[in-house]
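step=encode ok
step=design start
structure_in=
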């Protein structure tokens, strides 16, 4: 039974019979299929506009994140980057040792020297900065320029930066004499 009085929304309403014979709530008559399709299209357009606005506001995605790039570098590639960074900062007597057969703590040691406390700090900072640009961060850093020995731990590669007297005193190259020398830069 359809009631000709329009509902507040302007659509005709329908009265539903109840078991006790009393009239129940009036329900709006179902909208025409065309109205529903138009409403669905409008909602879909609104959702697409919202998603488009969010995508435009988001930062552009990098092709490969720095962390992913750092994760795909081998230990030898990291060691070569360290040697290059040390050379850029004018480190002296750079030695790259393969210690993978001798110890499980690292695969490579890079040992180098700096002429002054300031240069020791610059070498350490330069190595850390160059590897950070490649997505590799040090696990730890010990010592400083005023201690005359700085250690940078990159996991598979450990870097020792010495002042010349401390390098002569500790003689790491002699201690790890059985390690294969991969590279020596004078």
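sequence_out=
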């Amino acid at each position: 039974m359809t009631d000709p009085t329009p509902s507040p929304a302007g659509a005709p309403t329908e009265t539903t019979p109840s078991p006790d014979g009393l009239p129940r709530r009036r329900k709006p008559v179902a909208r025409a299929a065309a109205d529903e399709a138009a409403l669905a299209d409008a909602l879909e357009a609104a959702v697409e506009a919202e998603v488009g606005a969010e995508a435009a506001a988001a930062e552009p995605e990098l092709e490969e994140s720095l962390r992913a790039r750092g994760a795909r570098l081998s230990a030898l590639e990291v060691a070569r980057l360290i040697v290059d960074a040390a050379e850029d900062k004018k480190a002296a007597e750079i030695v790259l040792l393969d210690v993978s057969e001798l110890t499980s703590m690292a695969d490579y040691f890079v040992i180098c020297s700096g002429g002054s406390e300031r240069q020791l700090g610059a070498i350490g900072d330069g190595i850390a900065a160059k590897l950070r640009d490649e997505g590799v961060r040090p696990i730890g850093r010990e010592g400083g320029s005023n201690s005359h020995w700085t250690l940078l731990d990159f996991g598979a590669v450990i870097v020792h930066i010495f002042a010349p007297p401390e390098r002569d005193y500790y003689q790491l190259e002699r201690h790890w004499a059985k390690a294969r020398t991969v590279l020596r830069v004078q």
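step=design ok
step=annotate ok -> The chain has six helices and nine strands.
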